Amino acid sequence: MKFEIKKKSKKARVGNLALVHGDVKTPAFMTVGTYGSVKSLTNQDLKECNAEMILCNAYHLMIRPESNLIEKAGGLHKFMNWSRPILTDSGGYQVFSLSNQTKVSNHGVEFKSPLNGNKLFMSPEKSIETQLYLGSDIMMIFDECTSYPSNEKDTEKSMELSLRWAEMSFNANNSNMPLFGIVQGGMYLDLREKSLNELLKYNFDGYALGGLSVGEPDHIRREVIEAIGDKLPANKPRYLMGVGKPLDIIHAVNNGIDMFDCVIPTRNARNGQLFTNYGVLNIRNRKYEEDLRPIDQSCGCFSCNNYSRAYIRHLDKCNDILAARLMSIHNVYFYQEFMGQIRSAIDNDSLEDLIKKTENNYISI
Amino acid sequence: MKFEIKKKSKKARVGNLALVHGDVKTPAFMTVGTYGSVKSLTNQDLKECNAEMILCNAYHLMIRPESNLIEKAGGLHKFMNWSRPILTDSGGYQVFSLSNQTKVSNHGVEFKSPLNGNKLFMSPEKSIETQLYLGSDIMMIFDECTSYPSNEKDTEKSMELSLRWAEMSFNANNSNMPLFGIVQGGMYLDLREKSLNELLKYNFDGYALGGLSVGEPDHIRREVIEAIGDKLPANKPRYLMGVGKPLDIIHAVNNGIDMFDCVIPTRNARNGQLFTNYGVLNIRNRKYEEDLRPIDQSCGCFSCNNYSRAYIRHLDKCNDILAARLMSIHNVYFYQEFMGQIRSAIDNDSLEDLIKKTENNYISI
């Protein structure tokens, strides 16, 4: 892995991240392909949406497919026929948000499979082992995701456990594949700093902010990012996990963040919420019933080049899954375009203007 | 419309059907796009599957979209952005199979919209009017579809009503767009002949067999087709409506039929049933769990070029609609390939061999 910063504008950075499966321009947004697929989209759709790197979940792919099928297939890239970079989440967040009856110890977490109730065990070692056989371009350490709200004492305890697991994850990586550390500490800035300082010992290949976008108000999330974003090592990629909305992204970029992932563009697309250069548009709104314009006249995506709002709305009303696909294509494309606009704005030292425009369009979501 | 027969081999014919929106090679299979879309597939997918002509339903498109949106959009081709030919079904079959509380008179059918319970009226005039504003390349007369089983007296009455409506449909067509007649008469060969002889008066642009594939045993359907298929005017396209399975298609071709439509390839795809050159394959079968081969190694479709059975099965298990799409692409492509094989076999006077092969592969479905 090679990370190169090409331009700085105040705290914001434009860079290039060279990975085993190709280059990724930063700031970058990763579309989420939980189970080894971005719902409704093929590899070709993703390429046509200019997606460079996607995120898949080790937790989900450990549970399903149940066998060692992906290993047999020669790794996740071959299994899903995706030739560009993949980052895998470690499963920490999912173990706590999706499983029942979790039993946490210093060694890891025992939990019941939501699929069949089987007892499963996830640990730093197991997570790294899984991510290694998946063959991801960037692995994440296994951590505990602190819920919100959480008092300072519980948050500290959780953060300390994550630090222990960070060390175990680091030691479990017997490869030279990149591994990122994850800063925890909830909404407590001193705990965030402590977490970061401890993680620096391991000289991880990149540093992420975890435990955000877990239900806290926007302004609290932004305070944390503002305080800690630019303190993450400057020569390494900085990744804000699970975020998010266009305004959150651009604010974080303005505080030095380079990488993002979120289910919003794809999940919201399936519910009819579309992102445009003029704000959001909900296709289920009656006012689009006879609107023969594309979703966004300034957009170059396949859906906007081929179909009208009225037609997509008609498909959605008829429960044709083509609607979900056309809207997913649009939103994935929009997010990649948005990241391109951000990179250009940094190159031109005009990020403030784009922030203002984004605030105008997206203040309400 | 211009129909040219290029080669005959016994009763089977290879031809070309020149329509406003392009040429269609016959024998032809039309994929069904009920609501103005082939479920899960874009125009581009359909072209890549070599689909030449699709079928849409006037009944469905009269009910939804509710307004005169398609007319405003400039017709169905523009609304759904499909530049190749479209045949529209008249709605006769659907009025009887999908509606409640139908009230039939000589003038037409009153029924309740399954969407909102509103009273609607469908008549020969209304059907032709609808098909004209949709702008289809081939329109069908409005008919009554006789259910199965039905005694001879009821069948005759129903057939007589369809003849009355055929005349009304013919008179309602104030355009020069092609209109096909539909031969009814259930499973009674003398009624079929009577229906055909009456319809010949109107010199329709093509002749269809309706009222088949309505629940009758395969051998009865085949007897009717054998008796009547080659009696349809030889210089005009002959269309067997709502059929069907590969074996039904090839038997009908062998009896002089040129055109087909059926939901089987797309509907069955969404349920995991795939057509291959070696018979059917159900992706949900456990034996494909770790099968890293494509659906059909001899197939050139996008899905077979890109993905394995195990991956598609995994997507299906995860309820990713991408599974439905990949399987639809495969089946639509397969059917077009199959029709191509049929045309080649007629060209080479080797249809019997292909029938035997098809019997071996598809006798069970």
* Strand-residue proportion of chain A: 15-25%
What's the main sheet of chain A like? Answer: 8 strands, parallel, barrel
Q: Which CATH class of the largest domain in chain A is shown?
A: Alpha Beta
- Tell me the helix content of chain A: 40-55%
Largest sheet strand order of chain A: 4-5-6-10-11-12-13-14
User: How many domains would you count in the coordinates of chain A?
Assistant: 2
Rounded to the nearest angstrom, the distance between the terminal CA atoms of chain A is 35 Å
What report would you give on this structure?
2 copies of one chain form a homodimer. By secondary structure, the first copy, chain A, is α/β, with parallel strands linked by helices. Chain A has 2 domains: 29-262, Queuine tRNA-ribosyltransferase-like (TIM Barrel); 271-365, no CATH class. Helix content of chain A is 41%, strand content 21%. In chain A, the strands form 4 sheets. Chain A has an 8-stranded parallel beta barrel with strand order 4-5-6-10-11-12-13-14, surrounded by 6 helices. In chain A, strands 1-2-3 form a 3-stranded antiparallel sheet. A 3-stranded antiparallel sheet of chain A has the order 7-8-9. In chain A, a hairpin with a 2-residue loop joins β7 (100-105) and β8. In chain A, α7 packs parallel to α8, α10 runs antiparallel to α15 (351-362) and α13 crosses α14 (321-347). The A-B interface holds A 35-37, 39-44, 64-65, 67, 69, 72-73, 79-81, 289-290, 292, 302, 306-308, 310-311, 314-315, 317-318, 320-322, 324-326 and B 35-37, 39-44, 64-65, 67, 69, 72-73, 79-81, 289-290, 292, 302, 306-308, 310-311, 314-315, 317-318, 320-322, 324-326.
